[in-house]
Specification:
There is one protein chain. The chain is of the alpha/beta class. It contains 7 helices and 7 strands, in the order E-E-H-H-E-H-E-H-E-H-H-E-H-E. The chain has one domain: TIM Barrel (Alpha-Beta Barrel). A 7-stranded mixed β-sheet has the order 1-2-3-4-5-6-7. Bound molecules: iron/sulfur cluster. The site of iron/sulfur cluster has 10 residues, from loops.
Length: 206
């Protein structure tokens, strides 16, 4: 059987991004899934099947992480939907390419996805966790993110970010630069209250 190539690993500037799953419990209004098939000029990121650990390992080896400054779990879905694969992949990176920093870009809903606390699983595996805060108020967060878990998502996302502080080197919140001035200020206040840095990222249209 001929299998179509899948984009599991792709370059974004000097970083290697890993795409493990299409699954995501959210439907963010700004999601790249709605605006195009790739990101940052990558090949289409929609995976025709969830990759096996072996497929991920092969994609990593082919890309050669030693040529990059960081390996980022991101892609077209929520990486923690494939939590076991994420942990196994991080273990593989640590063993075969020691010294390469790893980052998880997440919506912060891993605990709700798995029905239990999960931040401790990142210990020793992930250096930086970047959580999509998306908005500074619950109402706007729910409007923008549209999580399938509903209202409890806003609190769960913040709780996950706080838990991560105990297990990884660095935790960040992110918002996209299309937020209103008011929401941006509310996001800053919330990030400050929780003692977590805030990164403002550019909205990607395609
Ligand atoms: S959490 Fe990420 S992958 Fe999921 S809908 Fe939002 S932007 Fe898209």
């Amino acid at each position: 059987m001929i299998q179509k190539a899948m984009t599991i690993a792709y370059r974004v500037e000097d970083k290697l991004y890993l795409n493990l799953t299409n699954r995501c419990p959210c439907a963010c209004t700004f999601c790249i899934r709605k605006n195009g098939s790739g990101a940052y000029g990558s090949d289409p990121l929609w995976l025709e099947h969830e990759p096996s650990l072996q497929e991920v390992r092969e994609a990593i080896d082919k890309a050669d992480p030693s040529k990059y400054t960081e390996v980022v779990f991101c892609g077209y879905g929520e990486p923690t939907e494939a939590l076991e694969l994420l942990c196994e992949t991080a273990d593989y990176l640590r063993e075969k390419y020691p010294g390469i920093p790893t980052r998880l870009n997440t919506n912060g809903l891993s605990d709700l996805i798995h029905g239990k606390e999960t931040a401790h699983l990142l210990k020793g595996r992930i250096h930086t966790v970047s959580v999509s805060l998306n908005a500074g108020t619950k109402e706007e967060y729910l409007r923008v993110t549209q999580p399938k878990f509903g209202e409890e998502s806003y609190q769960a996302m913040q709780q996950f970010a706080l838990h991560c502080k105990s297990y990884v080197d660095k935790v960040l919140f992110t918002v996209v630069d299309i937020l209103s001035e008011e929401e941006m200020s509310a996001s800053r206040r919330l990030a400050e209250k929780l003692g977590i840095g805030l990164r403002i990222r550019e909205y990607i249209e395609d």
